[in-house]
Amino acid sequence: MIPLNAFPAYMYGRELRLKPLAKYPRRIIGEAIDIFERRNRHIVRKRDLIEEIRRVLRKEHDLRVTNLLYYSLRVFYGVEEPKDILKFEKKSIVVRDEWDIRMVFYDWVQKNYGGFIPIEKRDEAIERFCGEYGIDKEKLDSVLAGGILRGYKLVRRITRPPTPDEVVSVSNFLLIEKALGLSNYATVVFRDIDMKGALMKDLLFRSKRARLLLDFKVEKNKLVCYLSGPFQIFKHPSPIYGEGIRYILMGALCRHNKWWLRASVRYRKRSLIFGVSSSNPLLGRIKAPWEYTGDTYNVRPFDSEVERRLYYMLRRMFPESKVIRESDILQTPDGTIFIPDFTLEFDGDKIFIELVGFWTENYARKKREKLDKIYGQGIREIVAVVDKKLARYFRGARFPVVLYDREFSIARRLREAVKLLKG
């Protein structure tokens, strides 16, 4: 995700608006591509590339636009550590890495200058050391600077130069991704979607993994998704929810042709509304960076330590069953959708285990409402494993509730609950 200094956004009333690269002539984007092409497979420094892009965008005084163009191009051009051969030509000293050279130099400074080189004698001392040990002065300067001066080797990731349209489409992705990364809830509408399709399944599983609340509403040929995360004690959105929202939505926006998005974002200490759609002539066309980089979003095997403990407990307690994590999408006749944390399979019969950890009151209430609705629609094989701090929200539940605390001593009660449902 791009940093804020590459996010050219501004406030217009209560709206967050963006300055996309699509508003600039394709000729200018092409000139920036040429800069990277001329330096392909050469040693470069970030600041030098940005300075050259600034000259291309000489009429644009917002440095964030320059940085956005730089990061957009970096999707197509990776960097590698330069493989310089480091050795002393005049000394029989084994050099394994840069740190060995630094240690030799520091020892030499200690012996010849008492551990400190006066600033006015620095160049003289560097030249003297290089002459005695037989090492290039430029390489020594780079080693002593920790690689800051050396730069990196720029390498194009794809077999041909990117087109201006590709750079603009990737930059749109980066802009929308950053805006969602600052959000605390979002509404997205997909048109002409197959309810049983891969898109819907992807949204459901990603929201489950990100531990965010995702609700659906079907309106004729539209699928309306409401995505939110709980608030902190002081009512400010946490950046971890924005991270989850962008993780859930960005891939879906790239794969679907018709969509509309509206999100509440926190920008410069203000709550603003950000809206965009696939029909937007400047921002609507987006291209995923991973199509060029091959990078993917890594998901942890378990979302919490409690979830991990519950999984292995189920495997030990019910060896005759198959324990599957987040495998079933349950849909009731009224359209309510539910993905249980775990499914226990016993010779074709299934029992669903839902873990309700300690989040917020709003989260607990919504989870109880959904479980009640699922149960009321005829899906009765549900066991809720609930943090003891949330016990008051699950009083009187018609489905079995197993409370846990820090010790997680729930084996006996959990076994009884599963046995009751098995009959």
Description:
Strands 7-8-6-9-10 form a five-stranded antiparallel sheet. By secondary structure, the chain is α+β, with helices and mostly antiparallel strands. The chain has 13 helices and 17 strands. The chain has helices spanning 26-38, 46-56, 63-74, 98-113, 122-133, 137-144, 164-181, 198-210, 239-255, 290-293, 305-317, 361-376, 411-422, and strands at residues 9-12, 15-18, 43-44, 77-80, 152-156, 183-191, 213-219, 222-228, 259-267, 270-277, 322-325, 330-331, 337-338, 342-346, 349-356, 382-387, 401-404. The model has no long low-confidence stretch (mean pLDDT 85). Helix content is 39%, strand content 21%. The radius of gyration is 29 Å and the shape is extended. A hairpin with a 2-residue loop joins strand 7 and strand 8 (222-228). It has two domains: 4-79 and 158-293, no CATH class; 305-422, Trna Endonuclease, Chain: A, domain 1, CATH 3.40.1350.
Radius of gyration: 29 Å
Major beta-sheet overview: 5 strands, antiparallel
Poorly predicted parts: none
Number of extended strands: 17
Q: Determine the number of helices (DSSP H or I, runs of at least 4 residues).
A: 13
Number of domains: 2
The mean pLDDT is 85
Shape: extended
State the helical fraction.
Answer: 25-40%
Q: In percent terms, what proportion of residues is strand?
A: 15-25%
Question: What class would the helix/strand composition place it in?
Answer: alpha+beta
Order of H and E elements: EEHEHHEHHHEHEHEEHEEHHEEEEEHEEH
The N- to C-terminal Cα distance equals 51 Å
Task: Please give the order of strands in the largest beta sheet.
Answer: 7-8-6-9-10
